[in-house]
Write a structure and sequence with these properties.
Length: 118
């Protein structure tokens, strides 16, 4: 069975260009803003951890979210992020295996919190 992590996104060009995912008790931001220098989208997401926002506390302008990050985890190629068939509902849990995740809630290791997506 494939494991999925639900996402919420804003901005879409072939794939979501900025999205949030909750995994292991943490909130992650995947950000791939348009680059004027490239005149295109970069081929990588920058991944951040965010404070645990309630849905009502997430700003309307998601471009402000990187400034509210608690940590920058690094980058991952857009091509390795596996999206559900709609490319709008979920990502494959395996993308988190490539990251060095900080402990969540005083625990260590990679906590698995995933959801099957039909």
């Amino acid at each position: 069975m494939t494991e999925w992590v639900p996402i919420r996104y804003r901005g879409f060009w072939d794939v979501p260009r900025i999205f949030l995912a909750r995994f292991g008790g943490q909130l992650f931001l995947f950000d791939c803003p348009f680059s004027e220098a490239l005149d295109d989208y970069p081929e990588v997401y920058t991944i951040y951890t965010l404070p645990d926002f309630a849905d009502d506390d997430i700003p309307q302008d998601w471009t402000t979210l990187p400034a509210r990050a608690t940590r920058t985890l690094g980058t991952v190629p857009v091509a390795v992020v596996r999206f559900d068939p709609t490319r709008r509902k979920a990502i494959g849990v395996e993308v988190f295996d490539a990251l060095t995740l900080p402990p969540a809630n005083g625990t260590h290791g990679h906590a698995q919190s995933s959801t099957p997506v039909p």
